[in-house]
Write a structure and sequence with these properties.
Radius of gyration: 25 Å
Largest sheet: 5 strands, mixed
Order of helices and strands: EEHEEHEHHHHHHHHHHEEH
Strand content: 5-15%
Structural class: alpha/beta
Distance between the termini: 32 Å
Helix content: 55-70%
Oligomer: single chain
Strand order of the largest sheet: 1-5-3-4-2
């Protein structure tokens, strides 16, 4: 979710909802409503209704303007005639921020819904993942990743709380070699160690890659203290992450020295390789946070020379 916008989950009475627009009654909407009714009956409401709190000077009671979720509300009333209250997200912030946040959450939850739907089909019809892949025209890898997320209740909750499906899939893959009970324990440990939903997917993937290597070597879950150690290491070293270095320290319970590359040393090394290589394959990008990404094409000999000039500890094994 956007950091400049808050969404708080509450349960409110239907009588407190204020409808601020008319419900769409077109034929196309009626066709959509049938599918939505089947979905909610089977899986429940994945995306709560979105409201904004309203008060009047002469009214002490709170009212909630319904911003998003008119169709879901109609379906809920149809399924349960005696329904008195519903789950809502209470929005606090500008309309512009609200639009951004809702679209973000809805996008991730639509992917989650797709994963839950596939999981339901495979359990009901007892078909293989290959058959599922052909039926819905998805790659086998994507089907496998989506299913890996919904097999873990804690991961489903984390996506509903704002975690991206990309991060959820990388976490699911990192714990795949553990037993089912240990997988769930490991996911909860990660959730308790830091705010997963606020971390960029690429940085989170670095953390889960290190976790995956550690688990593969030890065959056991990682406790919150060690997970926090991995997180701190990745935070301080940014792109210069040496997985072997951190894994050895975790296994030996030793301290990992953080390091930063001397900018002058790096610039001189890049300049030397660029001048001696005889070809112009140097590219750089200035990122939004002020950092610079350098891309330099090198052959094997040039790479060895570059590695020697800046120091091998700055070169990841996956470089």
């Amino acid at each position: 979710m956007a950091k400049n916008y808050n969404l708080k989950l509450h349960r409110v009475l239907i009588s407190e909802l204020v409808l601020i627009r008319e419900v769409d009654t077109s034929t196309r909407t009626k066709m959509f409503m049938k599918g939505l009714e089947d979905s909610i009956s089977e899986l429940g409401v994945l995306m709560p209704l979105l409201v904004m709190q309203q008060t009047r000077d002469d009214d002490k009671e709170y009212k909630f303007a319904l911003i998003d979720g008119y169709k879901r509300l109609d379906v809920l009333k149809k399924i349960n005639k005696s329904l008195l209250a519903v789950n809502v997200l209470i929005a606090e912030g500008s309309a512009e921020n609200m639009s951004f946040s809702v679209n973000h959450v809805r996008g991730e939850l639509s992917k989650l819904y797709q994963a839950l739907y596939l999981h339901n089909i495979i359990n009901k019809e007892k078909i293989t993942q290959d058959e599922l892949s052909k039926r819905f025209m998805l790659s086998k890898g994507e089907v496998s990743k989506l299913l890996s997320v919904v097999r873990h209740p804690s991961l489903v909750k984390m996506v509903k709380s704002g975690m991206t499906m990309t991060s959820a899939k990388s976490l699911a893959i990192s714990v795949s070699s553990l037993t089912q009970d240990d997988r769930e324990k490991q996911i909860v440990n990660v959730r308790n160690s830091f705010q997963c939903s606020e971390m960029p997917s690429r940085k989170f993937e670095k953390i889960t890659n290190i976790m995956s290597e550690y688990i593969a070597k030890t065959k056991e879950p990682i406790d919150t203290r060690k997970i926090r150690k991995i997180y701190d290491y990745v935070e301080k070293n940014n792109n210069f992450v040496n997985s072997d270095r951190i894994i050895k320290s975790l296994m030996n319970n030793s301290t990992v020295d953080n390091y930063s590359l001397n900018p002058t040393k790096l610039i001189n090394a890049v300049k030397t390789i660029s001048e001696t290589s005889g070809h112009n394959h140097l590219k750089y990008d200035i990122n939004n946070n002020g950092t610079v990404t350098i891309k330099l094409k090198m052959n094997t000999d040039e790479f060895r020379q570059f590695k020697k000039m800046i120091g091998s500890l700055y070169i990841s094994n996956n470089f």
